Amino acid sequence: RKEVEQDPGPFNVPEGATVAFNCTYSNSASQSFFWYRQDCRKEPKLLMSVYSSGNEDGRFTAQLNRASQYISLLIRDSKLSDSATYLCVVITSGTYKYIFGTGTRLKVLA
Amino acid sequence: DTGVSQNPRHKITKRGQNVTFRCDPISEHNRLYWYRQTLGQGPEFLTYFQNEAQLEKSRLLSDRFSAERPKGSFSTLEIQRTEQGDSAMYLCASSLVRGSYNEQFFGPGTRLTVL
User: Fold this and answer.
1) Are the beta carbons of B35 and A98 separated by less than 8 Å?
2) Closest to A19 in 3D by CA, of A78, A62, A64, A59
3) Is residue B23 pLDDT above 70, yes or no?
């Protein structure tokens, strides 16, 4: 079993739709969580950190469920420019290396 | 541009040749990381440095791979006797660790094709 698992998609949604992605992690010692965005043939870029209490940044909401060991990303009012791969990142206590999920591809359709 | 830079951006080589990639991190960042990404997968951790010390190496990093960060600034990743399975995007990232916060900034990557 992979340490961090995501549904690879693709998720094809119309403009204006709300879409949600989940990411599960296997190591209960995981302490930090992020969502990164990666455009085709580009480097990953930080979208948002995920805090225990949940956090929101404009149209994006991230949540953490430690009991069930998953994090989620909700995108409201999808834009064409949101089309990308969304990578879940987990950091385990005592280390600084990122453990990435496979990424979830999102295509927002006009 | 004060971000992470990587050179070359693309490298095509024949099987059995040696290749070396360079990464220049953001100047004040004390940690530097190497990852490898293949098509349809997320990046996989290879190794990281704090200043010039190499603190962790993945089991993915076979004996043919070596990384250095001699002066705690730029880093090089060398692959000896390349194999077709080494074809991938090699990503470098850097971070300034402050307490428990550790946002990593990625470079544009070096795309390696082994023929």
Assistant:
1) yes
2) A78
3) yes
